[in-house]
Amino acid sequence: MNKFKQGFMYAFLTVASIISIFPFYYMIVSATNESIEVTRGSLIPGTNLIQNFQNLIDTVAVGQAMWNSALIAVGTTVFALLIASLAGYGFEIFRSKTKDMVFSILLLSMMIPFASLMIPLFRFFGGVSQVAPVIGIDTLAAAALPTITTAFLIFFFRQNTKMFPRALLEAGRIDGLSELGLFFRIYVPTMKSTYAAAAIITFMNSWNNYLWPLVILQSPENQTVPLLISNLGASYTPDYGVIMLAIVITTLPTALIFFLLQKYFVAGMLGSVK
After folding, report:
1. Per-chain mean pLDDT for the chain
2. Which one of 39, 119, 264, 269 has the fewest beta carbons within 10 angstroms of its own beta carbon?
C-alpha cells in the first residue's frame, strides 16, 4: 500500500511538473519559429530565432525598455527594502498601543485596490509636474514612487522581526551603538534571508508592473518591458515569434535573480533568522 501511495505521489508530481513547465517550453520553442508556426501550435523548435531577434531589434527599442524597467525595478527594490524594514523594525521593536493601531490601519490599506487609486495619483503627479518636473508625469521616478513600499512588505518585515533575537540588540546597546547602528550593523546582517525574499518579491512585482506605467508613462522612450510587449501584440499583424522572443528575453532577469537567491527566498518566507 505504501508503494502504491508513493507511486501515485510521484506520478502526480510528474504530471504537475509537466503542466508547470509546459508554458515555458512553449514560449521558448515559439521564439524560434515563424509567426504562422506559432499560430498552428507547433511544439518543435524552429530555425527562425536569429530572424526573430533581428526583427525585434528593428521593430522596437527593446534595450531601452529593459533599461527603463531595470532602473525602476532596482530603484524600487532598494528603497522599498530600506523603508519597509525600518518600518517593520520600528513597529515590532518599539511596540505600543498607538503603533499597533497605526499598523492595523496600515494593514487595512491592503484591501484598497490599486485601480481605485490611479486617478488621485495621476492628479497628484500632474500637480507635482508643475513644481518638480523630474518626478512628474512621464518620468521613471513617477512610475516608481507609488510602489516604493507596500503594507504587505512592512507586514512581512514585522512578522519576521518577531523571531529576531532581542539579546543582540541589548548587547549592542551595552557596547554603545546607536539605534541606527543597531539596525544597520546587527539587524540587517542577521535578517539577510528576509531581505533576499523581500527583494525577489519587490523586484518581480516592479519588473512586471503594467497598469501604473501604462497610465503615467506617455513617451515611447520611457516605456517599460510590459508596455513594449503589449505594443507588439497590439499591432495590426502581430508577429508571434517576435513577441515570444521578447517575452523570453524579458523573463531572463527575474528568473536569474530568483535562481540565484532561491535558497535565501525559501528561508526568508519560512521566517529563518541567521
Report:
1. 86
2. 119
Contacts of 249 (CB under 8 A, 6+ apart): 56, 62, 66
> String of b and e for 22-48 (b: at least 16 CB within 10 Å)?
eeeeeebbbbbbbbebbeeebeeebeb
What would the pLDDT profile of 144-159 be if each residue is shown by its tens digit? 998 888 889 999 999 8
Q: Which of 227, 197, 243 is nearest to 34 (CA)?
A: 243
Q: Residue 237 in 3-state DSSP?
A: coil
* Amino acid present at 133: P
Q: Which DSSP symbol is given to 41?
A: T
Residues 6+ apart with CB under 8 A from 29: 42, 43, 44, 45, 46
CA-CA distances (angstroms) from residue 111 to 84, 104, 105, 150, 157?
18, 12, 11, 12, 19
Backbone angles phi, psi at 184, to 5 degrees: -80, -30
- Identity of residue 264: Y
Cα distance between residue 221 and residue 242, in whole Å: 20
DSSP-assigned letter for residue 31: T
Q: What is the rounded distance in angstroms from the CA atom of residue 225 to the CA atom of residue 233?
A: 13
Cβ proximity of 186 and 177 under 8 Å? yes
Report the alpha-carbon angle 28-31-33, nearest 5: 120
- pLDDT for the residue 268: 62
Grid cell listed for 268? 526568508
Q: Which three cell numbers stand for residue 273?
A: 533568522
How far apart (Å, rounded) are the C-alpha atoms in residues 248 and 120? 35
